[in-house]
Amino acid sequence: MNPLTETPGHTPGDGAEPSRGLALVVDDAPTVRMYHGGVLRAAGFTVEEAANGLEALEMLLAQRYDLVVTDVNMPLMDGFTLVRRLRAEALGRSVPVITISTESQESDADAGYAAGANLYLVKPVAPDLLTRVADLFTAPLPSSQSSSTGSRS
Prior knowledge:
The protein is 36% helix and 15% strand. It contains 5 helices and 5 strands; from the N terminus they run βαβαβαβαβα. α2 packs parallel to α3 (79-88).
């Protein structure tokens, strides 16, 4: 099994429930999609890919995703526009979005957050960092447990 392209117990397209969730990786560079997708697959995510923001938006409006990892500078629709358009849709308001770009100025990160991104990272992103932040954004919330230790008088 290749950890960069396969997830244990899940064959792409077999309809099996992913163990960690469904992630969408958006980048116009196939090698970057393969890299980010491979990191997420190795962490247990099922990954789908889009080559630009327009393709990604169409996918996001047709399918619920647990995480979006997007580049910023892409043809047809850039990552910031993608995030703004996603946040304008009811089903896209709660999806965690990580923007990853070569643009490293503070103003670039500010623009990402203003668009609605949850996190702005600068390329290259270490695999362990991407895995940790993906885990943080997709971890289930702790359930509230009511404890009954006795009756009240």
